[in-house]
Amino acid sequence: MAEAPDEQLMLAYREGDAGAFESLYARHRIRLFRFVLRNIKSRASAEELYQEIWMRVIEARATYRPTARFTTWLYTIAHHRMVDHWRSARLPTVSLETDDIPASNPGPQQHMEAREALSRFAAALESLPAAQREAFLLHEEAGLTAAEIAAATGSNEEAAKSRLRYALAKLKAAVDDG
Amino acid sequence: MADERDPRLSQHYRDLGAEEPPRALDQTILSAARRAVEKPHAPLVTPGGRHRWYFSLGAAAVIVLAVAVTYHMQQEQPDPDSLGISTAPEAQKDEAVKPAAKPESASRELAREPASPQAAPPAGPSAESQSRAMRAPQIETPERMLERIIRLRKEGRHDEADKLLAEFRRRYPDHQIPAVAKK
To answer: What is the domain range of residue B150?
Structure first.
């Protein structure tokens, strides 16, 4: 069962198999948490949202139909919850905690350069418009294609591709800037 | 193409850190998931663990209910005497003629009845009522009842046969009645 596809696990959970949910949760917990954390300003809010997303998954199990990849369905729920959060909190942009960046370790020149590149990357990710950052995170963290990003965020594929392209270009430029 | 990852950017993204949700949060979510599937309906197979007692309690309740219903049905069984159905016509006739009947007739009546755990009561009108009160409830099969109706018809006691037939129809409305029992 642990090797079963996500969709099969979700169907098993719908039929009452709590173990299937545990497998599904184990697969997605880290990626979904990071996706939320990097989209939301505070860790406390991110944890709260993360829990709400999974509660929505649990509540929606009875109506779950494997019409798309489970990942797309999961991140669609996540997107909706984050939009609600941004609306209520009026947070147009998010920032990454500086603690997320590994501590500096004085050493060779290349280590210093790598750290600077990482800082620029973090700053660039933080400064991306929310839609572009979300598109990048869905692509990078959840492994969604442009079509799946469009489905998860309720936009069209061309818009998703465009957001992703802009995000990648800005991040690349930031890293190369040094 | 937009779907292709840039390995350098992916690496930088990974280097940002590998944050994980707190274990307590994991447990909260997993507990909620388990509770959600335990709630809707009880399992049809015997569960293990802490829910095993449900089945013992359910079985005990069913047994108590069955015993109570059976006892109640037996108590509800009508007294044949109140319907004019005599279980011992000869003995009653004797009593009508001789109110202070001999002990032998009383014992004869008791002997005709289904096994009674009580000792033979003294004869006489009050003894008769006591005897009725102590009479063990009995359920007469439709076949036995029909036999009695037919016997009454043969003896020319049609009034009693009609009463018994009416009672028979009330008790067993779907049971077939032979013509010989009707007239």
So the answer is: 142-182
Look at residue A47 in the predicted model and tell me its pLDDT. 93
User: How many contacts (CB atoms, under 8 Å) link A and B?
Assistant: 97
On whether any CB of chain B is under 8 Å from the CB of A173, the answer is no
Rounded to whole angstroms, the Cα distance separating A56 from A43 reads 20
> For A127-160, how does the pLDDT look when each residue is reduced to its tens digit (9 = 90+)?
899 899 999 999 988 889 999 999 999 999 999 9
ipTM score? 0.77
The answer, for B20 touching chain A at a CB cutoff of 8 Å, is yes
Q: Taking CB atoms and an 8 Å cutoff, what residues of chain A touch B9?
A: 121, 140, 168, 171-172, 175
Q: Would the pLDDT of A26 be above 60?
A: yes
**How far is B26 from chain A, CA to nearest CA, in Å?**
8
- C-alpha–C-alpha distance, residues A33 and A50, integer Å: 6
Number of domains comprising chain B: 2
A62 in Cβ contact with A14 (< 8 Å)? yes
Domain boundary among B96, B116, B134: B134
Per mean pLDDT, which range of A10-14, A129-133, B14-18 is the poorest?
B14-18
Q: Are A117 and A111 in contact (CB under 8 A)?
A: no
